[in-house]
Give the backbone structure.
Amino acid sequence: MKTFAPPLLPSIDLLVPTMQQQGYAVLSATQVSALSGVEPATLQAWLPYWDDLPPDDYLRDGGRYRRRRHGSFVVAQQQVQPVPHRPHWQPVEYNALHGGISRHFAPLQADLVQHPEWSRLLVSLTQAADQLYGARTWYVEAHQFRIDTTDGIGRPTPEGAHRDGVDMVAVFLLQRHGIKGGETRVFDSLQPAGLRFTLSEPWSLLLLDDAKVVHESTPIQPAELGGFRDTLVITLRRDHFLEA
């Protein structure tokens, strides 16, 4: 299966102008570390948390291929405040498949949320958002995902190409194991122009301006028994969380 290399930023200094110009940017793991101040070894040490994700019981296609956890935070003036556990909700305008449902997922693991570098990672994303949209309070949701090949095919985005109804979306690729597929596709929201590539480096990052682009990931198939793809998706929204 042919794959296309991601269009990595030439320099982390070009992050904001690149986002302003095209609505997305792809960062290497080294650039993620430089942006966040979190050492690569620390990020890699978080991977075992993805071995402990409960099944997603809300899949309307009847699949068993997605496991996840979810958490919410408010970040203001570089201070991270966890929010009492709450459901994840999107309107049908942004998620035609699962929109309009209050989805109650298991919370993020306490050890992960309480790790000081976790807050540093969230703050680094809000600082980038401040540069793009102006300094403000950010309402942040974090999603741990594992897509596996239990049913032969796993669908990272069963809703198809979509926006999330937020301001900025960060998609971290944590690991790919024994799979093929899982191609990332980003499209201009107002034109047919688009880009396709495969994230494969652990802790590489796709950063999206949700108003300017739509995105999706193609299904994965097993290349060996027990194949899976792990991601961390963090969304940032101004003013308030999306609520039912």
In short: Residues 116-133 form the longest helix (18 residues).
